Amino acid sequence: VKEYLAQVIMNSNYDKEVSPNEACGSDEPVKVEFQFALVYIGSISQMLGQVTLGGYFRQYWKDPRLAFDSTGDGCPKTLTMPVKFKPTDHIWTPTLYIDNGVTWRQGASFTSVSPDGSVFTSEEASITLKLNMRFDRIPFDQHKVFMELASYSMDSDTVRLMAKDGKAGAGTSGIGMTTTKIEDPVWWIEGREAAKSGFSTPGEVVVKDFGSDWDYLTVSFEVTRRTKYLVDNVLLQDLMFLAVCYMGFFVDPGVAPARAAMAVIPVLIMR
Predict the structure, then answer these.
(1) Exposed, middle or buried, 84 (CB in 10 Å: 0-12/13-18/19+)?
(2) What torsion do the CA atoms of 154, 158, 163, 166 make, to the nearest 10 degrees?
(3) What is d(CA 65, CA 266) in angstroms, rounded to the nearest whole number?
(4) Spatial separation of the C-alpha atoms in residues 164 and 37, rounded to whole Å
């Protein structure tokens, strides 16, 4: 790996500011695939309309300049970069950002290169997203948790963004969000089956015109409120609270200690 880094990536002929296809004399845009592997849902803030997701931020693309010979004896089929290797410091990257992101905490990362120059990066991430949440149907409400991505500096003439194994251009294809078994006490995630077998959802690409065309990829899943949880843990307790409050009206006004006790009990419940 050290020899490869010295001969290919650290070589003065490699320019990370130039896209792979442009460096090879091609006018075709670079196809960049994305997938978010969901591990957990940290929190869903109904007051702020935000959700925090934890998982792995995965990107795939091909850079022929990074190709190497794997046919010789002892040659590796895939090169795994050192732990401290940061792709943005050494090689061309599609500079993806999250359009509806609020915060993005990055953790450990992994980068590998295949003999044909295919690059795979995976980065541990905790991401807080801004959502469009409406509660007019509570406790039977359903919400779409989505992540909208685009290249920060490259339009669709340079980069075509799509979900993993998807197709270039506008439309729905590929696998944009995936997870194994996942469960939440308050919400059903992509239906009840996700708690048993996980789920995979496609990505949707929309081409937006900002003087030139830009690919925006949305990966998402739906959450549905567990009605029984809300009724048992919120609504019933609220009704009991109100019942205690109104019971004070039926106590003889002359019995001051009893009326005072009925007034204080709800305050103690609140604390």
Answers:
(1) exposed
(2) 160
(3) 70
(4) 11
Kindly state the tokens that stand for 217.
């990829």
pLDDT below 70 — which residues of the chain? 1-2, 6, 12, 73-74, 270-271
Q: Tell me the per-residue pLDDT of 148-163, one tens digit each, with 9 for 90 and over.
A: 999 999 999 999 999 9
Residues pairing with 219 in the sheet: 147, 203
Rounded Cα–Cα distance for residues 48 and 132 (Å): 10
Pairing of strands 118-130, 101-113: antiparallel
Task: Report the C-alpha gap between 149 and 96 in whole angstroms.
Answer: 7
Q: Output the six-digit token pair for 94.
A: 């599609």
Cα separation of 103 and 123, whole Å? 15
Q: Residue 186 is which amino acid?
A: V
Residue 99: closest CA among 208, 222, 20: 208
Q: In this structure, what DSSP letter does residue 132 have?
A: -
The reported pLDDT for the residue numbered 1 is: 67
Tokens of 33: 């695939």
- The model's pLDDT over 162-193, given as tens digits with 9 standing for 90+, comes to 999 999 999 999 999 999 888 888 888 887 77
pLDDT recorded at residue 230 = 82
How far apart CA 55 and CA 182 sit, in angstroms, is: 12
Helices (H), the chain: 2-4, 20-23, 87-90, 194-197, 227-230, 236-247, 256-270
Exposure of 45 by Cβ count < 10 A (0-12 exposed, 13-18 middle, 19+ buried)? Answer: middle
- Rounded to 10 deg, the angle between the 236-247 and 256-270 helix axes is 160
Peptide bond into 115 cis (omega under 30): no
